[in-house]
Amino acid sequence: MAVVNPAEVPTVSVSELPSEDVVLLDVREPDEWAAGHAPEAVHIPLGDLPARVAELAELPDDKPVYVVCRSGGRSARAAAWLNAAGVVDAVNVAGGMKSWLTEGRSIVGDREGVRAEVL
Questions:
Q1: I need a surface site. Which of 69, 79, 86, 109 has the fewest CB within 10 A?
Q2: Domains in the chain: how many in total?
Q3: Residue 63 Cα distances to 10, 34, 112, angstroms
């Protein structure tokens, strides 16, 4: 697998994301996902990406896949790997879910009776 410097990964801020019809891939761990995530996001933890390439191949290939984590570090590594492997056209979301929340975008959680939050 080719090594791509995460600093060379295409990156956008949350405010630059399209407001609808966005393909969002959340690469955080299951506990972070359960606490709060974007409603339409697809969840595949960073460490699971190589084993779940078949699922990734099912994502739309006519538009970029925006990759998000908590603050942008893991998603940059994931986007670099996805682009190098030729799996999808991946773009890192700078600032991650922390910025998502700061920008006023909605989140949902999987924990009943507990308000959604970004861990």
A1: 86
A2: 1
A3: 14, 27, 34
**Residue of 46, 49, 56, 69 marked catalytic:** 69
Structure tokens belonging to residue 25:
């891939």
Q: Is the pTM of the predicted complex or chain greater than 0.85? A: yes
Would you state the structure tokens that stand for residue 3, as one six-digit string? 């090594």
**pLDDT tens per residue, range 44-90:** 999 999 999 999 988 888 899 999 999 999 999 999 999 998 888 99
Whichever domain contains 15, its CATH number is: 3.40.250.10
In one-letter notation, the amino acid at residue 2 is A
What residues make up the domain containing 71?
Answer: 6-102
Lateral strand order in the sheet of 11-13:
11-13, 90-94, 65-68, 23-26, 42-43
How many other CB atoms are found less than 10 A from the CB of residue 4?
A: 17
Contacts of 15 (CB under 8 A, 6+ apart): 103
| Residue 98 annotated to the active site | no
